[in-house]
Amino acid sequence: MQILKKEVTEFELFYDLIFAYAISKIASILLVGTDHLLSFKSLGEFLMLTLVFWTIWTYQTVFANRFSIKNKLSALFLFFDMFWVIILAQSINVDFERTHFTFAGATSILFFSIALQYYLKMKSTDNEIIRKLCIQLAVVLVVSGVLGFISILPFGSYWLRFAIYAFSIFITAFFPIVTKKALLDFPTNFEHLTERYSLFTLLLFGEAVIAVASTILFNDIQFSSVLFFLLIVVMFLFYNTIYKSGIDRQKTTAGLVLIHSHYFVFAGLELSIVLYENYVKGEIDPLFFVLCLAASLICFLGGTLVNMVIYTKKEYNYLPFISKNILYFVGWVVIGLLLQDYTAPFLLVNILFLLFFLYKVKQELKMQVE
Fold first, then answer.
1. Average pLDDT in the 27-45 region?
2. Measured CA distances, 97 to 38, 53, 197, 284 (Å)
3. Residue 182 scores a pLDDT above 80
4. CA-CA distance, 233 to 20, in Å (whole number)?
5. What is the DSSP string of 54-93?
6. Which residues contact 170 (CB under 8 A, 6 or more apart)?
7. If I label 171, which of 3, 56, 145, 315 is the partner at 20 to 30 A Cα–Cα?
8. In this structure, how many other beta carbons lie within 10 angstroms of the beta carbon of residue 278?
9. SS3 for 38?
10. Contact 73, 14 (CB under 8 A)
């Protein structure tokens, strides 16, 4: 099937703004307790809520990627969905049980809305490949929407209803892996898809800069805040280098690795920012910070690198590169544990490590084209 060239539209960017706000708002549930730690409950809820917003955004993005959204009906759907995403974002609360009714209800409405878009597309085409793909995605969205509504009914314990809701999100998030054959029969517009994900990630980096601002007072600019800002810059350069030079954007693919890896990119980036912000403010236990930061950077760096490996511009063996950098990462963790009580030196080592990692990536990409 021929893939037409497609550019990211103003409607899509407008739609993305509210999601960037929502994902950054999820960080508000990551509160440091009196013990200077993040609770495992808040970390679990953070990952779950990120999955919810990532899933909704991804389904709408995949629809826009494969089908035009320049008609008035599609624009109306976007505006309708944006309003419910606002409600979803405002339902984020440290006491998730208190807002579950609104949150799960809004999720279901959004699933039904996106399912209706796929259904209408199926009815408007005679192409059997497109019809098959649309009906598969529409069905799973409707099923998940129904389960979400069931979870807000007043029966059983809250944890039972939350488990039903979580199950509905998981089957929706990972169902496309099961439908890989149908997705490959009607491949994604990969150039548009990579651009869409990169622009959304850029919005999240913009939110990260706001986190840096929260550590600065107009009459008291700490050196650690400067280092925090430089860390954000280097992380951005790392992601941008992979996007610009490490991915073959002309590939014929379903794009499933790009799509699912970005859940880890989004979660890892947001968690890293929250951790750095609290560390600079001196509000988090240093040992806990280093261990959680290592996990979040694995998500961000690994989620970014996997796209370079999978969507390489030509056949290339990345195994030696990956093996060496795992050792470098372990070395960074060890040094971090030794410097955990010294904020500025630790942040400086972070910057140097990420710059070194960026340099190694650029060297590997240069070797690939030689």
1. 80
2. 19, 18, 31, 26
3. no
4. 18
5. HHHHHHHHHHHHHS---SHHHHHHHHHHHHHHHHHHHT--
6. 51
7. 3
8. 20
9. strand
10. no
Predicted pLDDT of residue 189: 84
As to burial, measured by CB atoms within 10 angstroms (0-12 exposed, 13-18 middle, 19+ buried), residue 246 is buried
For residues 25, 31, 37, 42, the Cα torsion angle rounded to the nearest 10 degrees is -70
Write down the number of H helices and E strands in the chain. Answer: 13, 0
**Range list of H helices, 179-285:** 180-185, 190-213, 223-245, 256-280
Strand partners, 220: 217
pLDDT at 2: 45
Q: SS3 of 217, please? A: strand
Model confidence pLDDT, tens digit, residues 244-293: 888 888 888 878 889 999 999 999 999 999 888 888 888 888 888 899 99
The model's pTM is 0.90
Q: How confident is the prediction for the chain on average, in pLDDT?
A: 86
Interatomic CA distance for residues 287 and 154, integer angstroms: 42
Using CB atoms within 10 Å of the CB of residue 254, give its burial: 0 to 12 exposed, 13 to 18 middle, 19+ buried.
buried
Question: So what's the pLDDT on residue 238?
Answer: 94
Asked if pLDDT for residue 242 goes beyond 50, the answer is yes
pLDDT at position 70 is: 65
Query: At CA 322, angle to CA 261 and CA 202, rounded to 5?
Result: 35
Which residues fall within 8 angstroms of residue 346, CB to CB, at 6 or more apart?
279, 290, 336, 339, 340
Contact 325, 357 (CB under 8 A): yes
Task: Inform me whether the pLDDT recorded for 146 exceeds 90.
Answer: yes
Contacts of 325-333 with C-beta under 8 Å, sequence gap 24+, read: 325/357, 325/360, 328/353, 328/356, 328/357, 328/360, 329/294, 329/297, 329/298, 329/301, 333/290, 333/294
At position 339, the amino acid (one-letter code) is L
